[in-house]
């Protein structure tokens, strides 16, 4: 079957890389990139592009009607740090954008939908170490509880309408092709750029704040593998935990120093993102992803750091 894929929110950190990979797999013309803004990014411009606002259901309807997609990836979202500055907007976009897409996916009988969740669904009462798939979840950021509510909607649409919607709880994502925007884990990308440009970095998270992170190459591969998995193997229809690599700013800095011995890290006295990070897990259990669709991560802290520095230098 020929796939036609729409990526909503293609200009962001995940979208840029996902569109590239999907086009390599399915062909440039089969993957429609779309976002609320135009972009100069060559990868996005290598195939069809549409201006789309996921909050405008009429607009979305026209695009679905025009392309009759077989798969839809909804990536448009406001992340954790910006979500605290614009809580109502974050709720509106993260929630109503999702519900619009789920409704249209049912109406247009779309074969598969992908929607990203996050480690932000966990909260201060969730177990901090090796956080399991199922446990107490009391997220206290707007982003976190919009993702948790979104997971419930995904599971509901699957149970009630048979919609094949699949999801991953991404850890913080680190890549060299695209930059994050507005998250709590952004330090782990910024640090590489600053290390190479200025030889120093002031971290907005404290030295010992451990968070789960994942190299973008692994994250994209996980997404494509989950989307290719047989539907009857998937036992999780909310969102799959992925473990990633757990490290602190101090550990990341020590790893960077192995390549750039003069690199210096300092720590900001106070930043509102610290409270968000403190409410998230230190590490995550990914047993269900391994068992259900054979997930196996490739990059660890050392190989990710080496690859990031090598590519950014180029
Ligand atoms: C954020 O920091 O908000 C995101 C996330 C972990 O979902 N990167």
Give a quick account of the main beta sheet: strands, pairing sense, barrel closure: 6 strands, parallel
Number of helices: 11
The geometry reads as globular
* The CATH homology group name of the largest domain: NAD(P)-binding Rossmann-like Domain
How are the strands ordered across the major sheet? 3-2-1-4-5-7
**Gyration radius, in Å:** 19 Å
Bound molecules: 2-amino-3-ketobutyric acid
In CATH, the topology of the largest domain is named Rossmann fold
The helix/strand order is EHEEHEHHEEHEEEHEEHEEHEHHH
Proportion of residues in extended strands:
5-15%
Low-confidence stretches: none
Topology:
Layout: E1 5-8, H1 13-26, E2 31-35, E3 49-51, H2 57-67, E4 71-74, H3 80-85, H4 87-107, E5 112-114, E6 117-118, H5 142-161, E7 165-166, E8 168-170, E9 172-174, H6 187-198, E10 200-203, E11 211-215, H7 216-228, E12 240-241, E13 245-247, H8 249-259, E14 264-267, H9 273-278, H10 287-293, H11 301-313
Helix pairs in contact: 4-5, 6-8, 8-11
The chain binds 2-amino-3-ketobutyric acid.
What's the quick description here?
This protein has 314 residues and is an alpha/beta fold.
Which characteristics define this entry?
single chain; 314 residues; alpha/beta; Rossmann fold; UDP-galactose 4-epimerase, domain 1; 2 domains; 6-stranded parallel β-sheet; 3-stranded parallel β-sheet; 11 helices; globular; binds 2-amino-3-ketobutyric acid
């Amino acid at each position: 079957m020929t796939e036609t894929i729409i990526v909503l929110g293609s200009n962001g950190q995940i979208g840029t890389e996902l569109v590239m990979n999907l086009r390599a797999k399915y062909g440039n013309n089969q993957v429609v990139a779309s976002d609320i803004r135009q972009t100069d990014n060559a990868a996005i411009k290598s195939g069809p592009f549409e201006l789309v606002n996921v909050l405008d259901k009429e607009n979305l309807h026209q695009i679905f009607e025009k392309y009759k997609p077989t798969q839809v990836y909804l990536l448009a979202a406001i992340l954790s740090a910006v979500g605290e500055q614009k809580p109502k907007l974050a709720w509106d976009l993260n929630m109503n954008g999702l519900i619009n897409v789920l409704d249209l996916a049912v109406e247009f009988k779309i074969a598969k939908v992908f929607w990203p969740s996050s480690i932000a669904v966990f909260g201060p009462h969730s177990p901090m170490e090796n956080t399991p798939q199922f446990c107490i979840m009391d997220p206290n950021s707007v982003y976190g509880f919009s993702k948790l509510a979104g997971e419930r909607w995904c599971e509901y649409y699957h149970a009630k309408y048979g919609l094949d919607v699949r999801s991953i709880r991404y850890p913080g994502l680190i890549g060299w092709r695209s930059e994050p925007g507005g998250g709590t884990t952004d330090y782990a990308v910024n640090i590489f750029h600053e290390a190479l440009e200025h030889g120093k970095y002031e971290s907005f998270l404290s030295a010992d704040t451990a968070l789960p992170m994942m190299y973008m190459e692994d994250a994209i591969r996980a997404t494509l593998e989950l989307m290719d998995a047989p539907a009857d193997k998937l036992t999780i229809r909310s969102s799959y935990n992925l473990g990633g690599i757990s490290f602190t700013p101090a550990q990341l800095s020590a790893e960077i120093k192995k390549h750039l011995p003069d690199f210096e890290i300092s720590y900001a006295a106070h930043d509102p993102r610290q409270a968000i990070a403190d409410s998230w897990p230190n590490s995550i259990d990914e047993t269900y992803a391994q068992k259900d669709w054979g997930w196996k991560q490739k990059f660890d802290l050392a190989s990710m750091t080496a690859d990031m520095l090598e590519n950014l230098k180029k």
